[in-house]
# Entry
Amino acid sequence: MKELRVLREKATVVLERWRKLDLRRWWAVRMAPKLHKPFKGAHRGDSWTTEEIGKIGEDLAAAWLAINGRKILKRNHKAAHGGEVDIVCRELDALCFVEVKTRTKVGWHRPADAVNKDKQKLIQRGARDWLKHLRRTDVGWRYDIMEVVLEDGQLPRMNCVVDAFKDSSANR
# Structure
């Protein structure tokens, strides 16, 4: 009986390690079909909250980035003294700090227009925190904005604005 319990614990540890190693690939494969399905504006009869729509947009954006050759390093990185980055990923030799903006309707403004100077400062603070923990100075980085538009009954539309804004306070 004791041997069976030890064997189960070892199997659990092995499965957990495998799950952590393969989680990014599993996640991208799981999310890929959602990129090709129409968005439903309601969930079980209730409309989505803004937090839920934002989460859906981040999931779709991360899947789109992974499918298009970027390696997702972390999602929702929060700096110790305020600031946050939605997605930190790598494309070839560059680190990309990606802000995701999701909208259910497109009017006069693009989703990227919502990233004003104050929001840029928060993103930059989160990016600087990431770079500080990285402890490497030879890494190039940039700030991207991922626009996600979810309209009821239509496929999600995504657009990546590469190098959307510059970091004025740091030398790159």
